[in-house]
Amino acid sequence: MNIGPPRFKIAVHSIVWLAKSGSILSSAMIASQVNSHATFMRRVMQSLATVGIVESKGGREGGYVLLICR
Q1: Whole-structure pTM value
Q2: Which residue segment(s) compose the domain that 34 sits in?
């Protein structure tokens, strides 16, 4: 995974937030908690999904869930 410094901080913060929540969270929900924009958050989360840290679920009730804590 090639994730640069601006995304690294947000990625770590997002992983911690997902671990605390223990449930599926939308990009907007995560973005509001880590002081970021939902579009930027989706890019970061896609990088994490590519390497298997999070799982992405589409649809109205979709979002991201942490895989490494399962």
Answers
A1: 0.82
A2: 5-66
